[in-house]
Amino acid sequence: MLMKELFSKKAESKVPSFGKDLGGAEKRKKLRRIEIKTRKLSNQIFSGSYHSAFKGKGISFSEVREYQFGDDVRMIDWNVTARNNRPFIKVFEEERELTVMLLIDVSQSSFFGTQSDFKNHIIAEISAVLAFSAINNNDKVGVIFFSDVIEKFIPPKKGKTHILRIISEIYDFHPKSNGTNIKEALRYFNNVVKKKCIAFLISDFMNAGYKDALSIAARKHDLLGLHVYDEREAQLPDIGLMKVVDAETNTELWVDTSNKQLRDQYAKAFVERVAQTKSMFGKSGAQLQSINTEDNYVVALMNMFKKRESRR
């Protein structure tokens, strides 16, 4: 019974909201720093990989643009390349019609971190990089913030102003509810986004009961899950008695971490939960990538893009 309770607990929140209230000038400086960092990552690292992973062959020719790392070399326009002494590729109309949706978990379990960053900070930065990658490829971007309710829906649009609004919301969002309901997020997503899109479901996936909704979303859309977790959710430290608090229900539990059997069972339960989640995604036709808050998420995302490209 103790182990069952322990595995259901989510660690205590250290910050009260997804972002902190800032004054106007300070907020603008912060968003500018975020924009520079995430745009640089997007431009230098993700543009080619994102393009290769998500762009189709197209239906009708639209224009040419400069070659980016990761582009399909079969799309190179050799005549334009010869005239300009640098590579250009052909762009087709279908490539300009993608919509990217970010489904972002803002439940209280994301406000946790024992290493260098909170989970919600990593989730926010990944979301910003994906948004800039999409907009750099002329795609529409929309967002659904969810806890155990739909907190906010930003319909997909193009343009820098729209992206900066999204980035501001991601880093400044204050959820009204504490819990997690992935099923409701996917149900809402399936209802409001009618046209097929690329969807990133970004969460710690500390929830159950969304298998059917996941299958429906994966059949209708191109769905990718990003599982963000903290090291202490995978391994308990040996530090004696430790109070564990569920950030979503405020339930408290004292745990004796000096008990090796308990630590081993805790680690095993985490591995099994992640394996079950990945299996569920795989069976639905979706893809799942786990990212430790201490990992280089750039590498993790690029590996995910490469796996996706190899499956096409």
Question: Overview of this structure, please?
Answer:
The chain is α/β, with parallel strands linked by helices and 312 residues long. Helices cover 45% and strands 20% of the residues. The protein contains ten helices and ten strands. It has a six-stranded mixed beta sheet with strand order 5-4-3-6-7-10, sandwiched between helices. Strands 1-2 form a two-stranded antiparallel sheet. Helix 2 packs across helix 4 (119-136) and helix 2 packs parallel to helix 10. It starts with a helix and ends with a helix.
Order of neighbouring strands in the sheet with most strands: 5-4-3-6-7-10
What is the CATH level 1 assignment of the largest domain? Alpha Beta
Report the sheet with the most strands, covering strand number, pairing sense and barrel closure: 6 strands, mixed
How many helices does DSSP assign?
10
Note the topology.
Blueprint: H1 2-8, H2 24-54, E1 61-66, H3 78-84, E2 88-92, E3 99-105, H4 119-136, E4 140-146, E5 150-157, H5 160-172, H6 182-192, E6 198-203, H7 211-220, E7 222-229, H8 231-234, E8 241-245, E9 252-256, H9 260-284, E10 287-292, H10 297-311
Helix pairs in contact: 2-4, 2-10, 4-5, 6-7, 7-9
